Task: inverse folding
C-alpha cells in the first residue's frame, strides 16, 4: 500500500513505528521499496556517500533532482522525500517555494525536507499552503556543519534543549508533517516526541521517537569514510563487493572468465574465409 503523509499521521496515532532509509539511485530504491519500508529519503548525504564530498554543503539542487528522479522511478509504495540542499531555501520564501516546486515537479517525489527550526517556518508555511508536504530536520543538521564546528551532538545544555523543543513545536505549527531529530540526547527526543502531534523520525536520538532513519550505505557497510556511533551495520556488502571484484580479476588473469557459455559464435565457414 502506498505510504502517504496521512499514513504517517495514522502511524503516530496507532503507535506504529515508521521506517525510513536513504537511497540515491533506481536499483537501490527498487530493492528498498520492495521490503515494505515506509519511506525513502533522497538525502543530501548524497554528497558524502555518492559524490565523495567531505560534507553536504556542496550538493546542488540539480544533483538532488537528478538522483531524486531515479529514486522515484524505483519506489512504488514508499513515501519519497527529497532533501532541499544548502542555500536552496534560506534566501527567501520565494526562493524556497520555487525550488521545492522544481523538486516536486521534476522528480515526482511526495515531499521535501529542509533543515532548521523557527528561522525556516515562513518557508515551511508557504510550501505547505502551496501543497508541498514538508519534513523538518532538527538537532545535528549537517548543512550547519561549519557553524557547529564539526559533527557534534546537539541539545545537551538546558538552553539548547529548550531551543530544540521550541523549534520542534514551531515547525509543527508551520505545517510540517514530520520532523527528523538527529544526534540529540534520547531523553530529549522522547520528550519532544510526546509533545508533538506529528511523527518524529530519529537518527541518533534513541528508540522512543516515532520512527527511525539511517543512511542505507551505513546500514549495509558500503560506506566506511566515517561511521557515527548511532549507526548499526546489518551487513558488510562492501567486503562482498571487494571479494567479488578480486575473484573477477583472478578469473580474467587465469582465463577462467569468460567461459564458452558467456561467448557468441559464428559459422566456421564464414570465419575460415576471414583468415
Ligand atoms: O541527508 C540525509 O541522509 C539525512 C538523514 C541522515 C536524515 O538528512
Result:
Amino acid at each position: 500500500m502506498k505510504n502517504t503523509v496521512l499514513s504517517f499521521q495514522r502511524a503516530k496515532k496507532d503507535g506504529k513505528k515508521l521506517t525510513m532509509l536513504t537511497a540515491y539511485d533506481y536499483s537501490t530504491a527498487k530493492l528498498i521499496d520492495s521490503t515494505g519500508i515506509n519511506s525513502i529519503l533522497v538525502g543530501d548525504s548524497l554528497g558524502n556517500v555518492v559524490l565523495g564530498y567531505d560534507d553536504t554543503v556542496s550538493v546542488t539542487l540539480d544533483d538532488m533532482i537528478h538522483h531524486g528522479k531515479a529514486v522515484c522511478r524505483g519506489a512504488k509504495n514508499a513515501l519519497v522525500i527529497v532533501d532541499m540542499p544548502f542555500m536552496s531555501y534560506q534566501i527567501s520564501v520565494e526562493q524556497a517555494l520555487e525550488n521545492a516546486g522544481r523538486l516536486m515537479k521534476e522528480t515526482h517525489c511526495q515531499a521535501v525536507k529542509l533543515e532548521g527550526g523557527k528561522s525556516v517556518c515562513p518557508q515551511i508555511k508557504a510550501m505547505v499552503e502551496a501543497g508541498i508536504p514538508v519534513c523538518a530536520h532538527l538537532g545535528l543538521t549537517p548543512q550547519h556543519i561549519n557553524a557547529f564546528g564539526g559533527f557534534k551532538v546537539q541539545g545537551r545544555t538546558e538552553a539548547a534543549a529548550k531551543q530544540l523543543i521550541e523549534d520542534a513545536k514551531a515547525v509543527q505549527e508551520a505545517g510540517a508533517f514530520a520532523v527528523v531529530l538527529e544526534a540529540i540526547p534520547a531523553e530529549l527526543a522522547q520528550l519532544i516526541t510526546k509533545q508533538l502531534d506529528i511523527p518524529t523520525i530519529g537518527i541518533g536520538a534513541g528508540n522512543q521517537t516515532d520512527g527511525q532513519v539511517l543512511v542505507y550505505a551505513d546500514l549495509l557497510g558500503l560506506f566506511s569514510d566515517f561511521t557515527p556511533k548511532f549507526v548499526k551495520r546489518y551487513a558488510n556488502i562492501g567486503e562482498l563487493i571487494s571479494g567479488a571484484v578480486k575473484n573477477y580479476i583472478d578469473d580474467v588473469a587465469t582465463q577462467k572468465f569468460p567461459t564458452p557459455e558467456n561467448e557468441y559464435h559464428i559459422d566456421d565457414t564464414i570465419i575460415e574465409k576471414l583468415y
